[in-house]
Amino acid sequence: MSNDNQQTGNPFVRSVVEVTAADLQGHGAVFCPNPKMPLWSHHPRVFLQITAEGEARCPYCGTVYRLKAGEKLHASP
Q1: In order along the chain (77 residues), what is the average pLDDT of each group of 10 residues?
Q2: Does 38 sit behind a cis peptide bond, omega within 30 degrees of 0 on the bond before it?
Q3: E strands of 8-75, at which residues?
Q4: How much is the pLDDT for 51?
Q5: 22 Cβ partners below 8 Å, 6+ apart?
Q6: Is 22 helix (H, G, I), strand (E, B) or coil?
Q7: Is this prediction's pTM over 0.90?
């Protein structure tokens, strides 16, 4: 998980976090706040599904979680 705090042109997006397939939980979800976020910025934990669109935005803080380019998702059994 790469939390390089990229600034975006969208005022509602705080940062972009690139995730790998290994970072995904269950059937393609990530959670926010992620472990690399500072303690002061924590909010209730939410699970965000990124498999359909390749990215998802946290409704609390606006952080966008994006599947890293070239990452392959494992097929579900």
Answers
A1: 48 78 89 85 90 91 92 66
A2: no
A3: 16-19, 29-32, 46-49, 55-57, 64-67
A4: 87
A5: none
A6: helix
A7: no
